[in-house]
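Hi Y.,

Following your request, here is the sequence exactly as I used it, all 425 residues.
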Amino acid sequence: MPTAESLRSDATFDQMDLSDEMLAALAKAGYEHPTPVQAGLIPRALDGIDVMGQARTGTGKTAAFAIPILEGLRGDVKRGPQALVLVPTRELAVQVRDEFVKLAEGQRVRSVALYGGKPIRQQIEKMRGGVDVAIGTPGRLLDLMQRGALSLGDVDIIVLDEADRMLDIGFRPDIEKILRRAPNDRQTLLLSATIPPPVERLARKYMDHPEVLNFSPAEISGDTIDQYYFTVDGERKFDLLVALLEREQPKQAIIFCRTKRGVDKIHHRLQRKYPDAECIHGDLAQRVRDRVMAAFRAGKVRLLVATDVVGRGIDVSGISHIINYDIPQFCDDYVHRVGRTGRMGREGVAYTFVAPEEGNELTRIEVRINRLLDRAEIAGFETIAKPTGDPSALDELADGEEAPAPKPPPFGRGGRMPRRYRRAL
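Below is the corresponding structure, written out as tokens. Let me know if you'd prefer a different format.
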């Protein structure tokens, strides 16, 4: 399928047969030249073609589908939306809605973000006033449909944004119910950072001969992102985090943890030293999540501790560092985490903390991205805890008592040390 490289061109927005209003909005937003995603997707979307595109966030993909949607809106007033955008998280729904508002400058376009955590009655009232573009999470959209507040009868185009993540977190049944109730002659755009088999099956079932485009770079994590790993014992991870922050002095950083409890714990300890640290995860009230994200986008929050699910909705251009405090459970989650930095061609750096027994997970990530991570060290910092038999403990031994032997590293079959352990230590 066509790649990002083959889609690079000297195309300009002026050559895309866009309206004067859209060109003015693009100029005001500071969009001078289309990114490869925009150059490849916009003309096809304007022609009404179904497209399945592989593209990371931070490549301009939101504008790539927002522009043709706005250009295709009919002027007649409808109660139901003419375009429907499905996203995996509340934060991403707000972010996409804001992009539509920005690009609809000078036009009377009604866009609304629909997601859980906010009173559904308020969203029902907004729908009653009429809406052109509805952006929302599948669960809330389906809830509104079942209540009769959201009708899909006038929908001309549906976008599945970050489709792989929506399937990862269990939205497939809701997505299929929504697609089955949408008009058969609609246009469908599917965008996903990765195209695993479940995404392909969804596309084959609900799209009309989609054109497949790959807007991802040859290396899944771009060349603008330097990627390193530390081998570190669990009890030394937080001290390593503090030492790394002191050395790097990031402009803005996201610290990823696997669990909500882990996020709370790290945030609580981190905030004692860094008052500009905040956290965000799915158990927080929506008003708190909105406040944290607004502060992070405004640069008032420098360090953000987050889980993977919420991390997908974070699109902030100033992020300079990603720190994987916990190595991600799935390789694709690594791709998405690292994709939070190095956005729109900017430089970024990612560090991953790897326990000695997690070497296999690191190897799988390297195979996934077709790239070896460089081992990192901090001068004078011991990432591996001293064994119980270290010399400092000898004075406490009774006469003639032998020091306990250091705990041996884990061995694989045949008594050989695993390859990753040999490399890391």
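The two ends are 41 Å apart (CA to CA).

Thanks again,
Q.
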